[in-house]
């Protein structure tokens, strides 16, 4: 006997189309041509030439920065950025406690210390908490534009200037996002981006560092792009030119086939983002006012990249229905790609931030954060339910079905707690 229209309890689902419902990046004939063309021309590029130079030039002009260096991953880009920014042994860098771990982990490989700071209820860096964690060793603060929603860059720029800290950015979720019309990734001394699979600009695997600072650029090259590239680009009279052949000994170059994919994708990024903006707007309008669900607020002068639509789940408005049960019911309605964030989470949850010494012997004396240090990051993580944001008109039925599934479960939540 059907006692509820909820699919989980035997009713008909909202969406009867099997998943997956979202794939990224969108692959077209021109991507296939670009990658196969590259396969036939060069599969290893040791200097700044060919598709690597073309991609770096186009990303630099897209972001409005002087220099871009591509890397094999976003993690490598972050590592190179921190190294090139002069972060070294004993230095402290303030990192939001809610992000993907690679925003912070490269610091361990430089002998530096990530100092986690809590976030506010919107998931943005809590500048009061960050200020309390500044010491004489603090060198930099990192802005992470989580889920593609830009941080308040007015506040962060003022904060870093007031405390004499270097401002760095992790734009891995936010290619093409803007704050007051300025591209994220162009605010700090340098920015690092991932171009891993689902990122707004995807190379499959890849990353890049963006900066206006030519000295920092040379140091990024020396960190992970040794020999030919360094020899050709670092002036012979530069004090670091004698290191050009080895650099620091790390090799972090992008693969040319990955560069070819990102280069083919880049001209479509603005259209992707405009499409996502319209779909995110439609989904937010559909969900606004639904009991138990808060939609993300984006100030008028912010231009998000909508890497995902992060909703806040409010169980106290839904008879304390656990989020996992809510999600189970939404999946049963056919909205199978509604998700709880996995790897982007409160960093204090990871063993590495408590006792890194077991893996990284230089950190045997590392003092991990107290268990209750990042209560807001934990609360935000534990209550975030994220949805894909489509960009094409032909997927609007999916966006509508996903919001309808959420509304249906919220409206019938009492059937699940009976
Ligand atoms: C915010 C953030 N920073 C850094 C990274 C690391 O990028 P990659 O996976 O390309 O190394 C990711 C990857 O998901 C990320 O989400």
Plain-language structure description:
The chain is of the alpha/beta class. The chain has two domains: 240 residues, Type I PLP-dependent aspartate aminotransferase-like (Major domain) (Aspartate Aminotransferase, domain 2); 148 residues, Aspartate Aminotransferase, domain 1, CATH 3.90.1150.10. The protein is built from 13 helices and 15 strands. The strands form four sheets. The protein has a seven-stranded mixed sheet, with helices on both faces. A three-stranded antiparallel sheet has the order 8-7-12, with no helix packed on it. Strands 11-13-15 form a three-stranded antiparallel sheet. Helix 2 packs parallel to helix 8 and helix 10 packs across helix 12. The longest helix has 19 residues. The chain is globular. The two termini are 16 Å apart. The site of pyridoxal-5'-phosphate (PLP) has 15 residues, from helix 3 and strand 3.
